[in-house]
Amino acid sequence: MTKPDISAKLRMNVASAVIKTHTAYRLRLLSVFMQAGLDITPDMYFILRYLWGEQDGSRQQELADKTGKDKASLTKLLDNLEKRNLVKRIADETDRRSKRIWLTVSGKKLKEKVYPLALSVVELAEKGISRNDLLHAQVVLEHIYNNIKR
Predict the structure, then answer these.
(1) Sign of CA dihedral 51, 53, 59, 65
(2) Model-level pTM?
(3) Any idea what the CATH number is for the domain that residue 72 is in?
(4) Which structural domain, as residue segments, surrounds residue 74?
(5) H-helix or E-strand containing 77?
């Protein structure tokens, strides 16, 4: 493969589009949250969304695995969520070395405000794209993810 071919292939690869889209999505979420007066980041939202999805009380390691966060990043996010009184960490009854993450009353209530905002960003992102195209894109991205995951 010649140098121009390599350069063109790297410029045209799907990773660039995914990164650009991911960044735009996060920035839009942050903007929408800020405009609504909510003191949470997109990363905090992704943690809360997992807990809201009937996974309240998840082990910290499970939360890290399911949200794609490393232990250090997750610890910092949980520290900030605890400072905002949205979650609490409690030692697991069966394994004292493990912590479970529980939503507080405030954390549970926040869902009512955040979900409509997050949905508005999803609807904006999907505007003008057919359901079939969205499903196909999801399948392709899952395949790419499975090809490169650790």
Answers:
(1) negative
(2) 0.84
(3) 1.10.10.10
(4) 3-148
(5) helix 71-83
The phi and psi torsions of 148 (rounded to 5 degrees) equal: -110, -5
- Residue type at 119? L
Structure tokens at 110: 């926040």
The 10s digit of each residue's pLDDT in 2-55 is 566 777 776 668 888 899 999 999 999 999 999 999 999 999 999 999 999 978
Terminal CA-CA length for the chain:
28
Q: Helix 105-126 and helix 42-50: axis angle, to 10°?
A: 110
Letter string b/e over residues 76-101, b meaning 16 or more CB atoms within 10 A of that residue's CB: ebbebbeebebbeeeeeeeeeeebbb
Question: What would the 3-class secondary structure string for 98-141 be?
Answer: CEEEEECHHHHHHHHHHHHHHHHHHHHHHCCCCHHHHHHHHHHH
Cα 5 → chain centroid: 35
Q: What is the pLDDT of residues 136-149, one digit of tens each?
A: 999 999 999 899 88
Is the four-CA dihedral 124, 130, 131, 137 of positive or negative sign?
A: negative
Report the domain count for the chain. 1
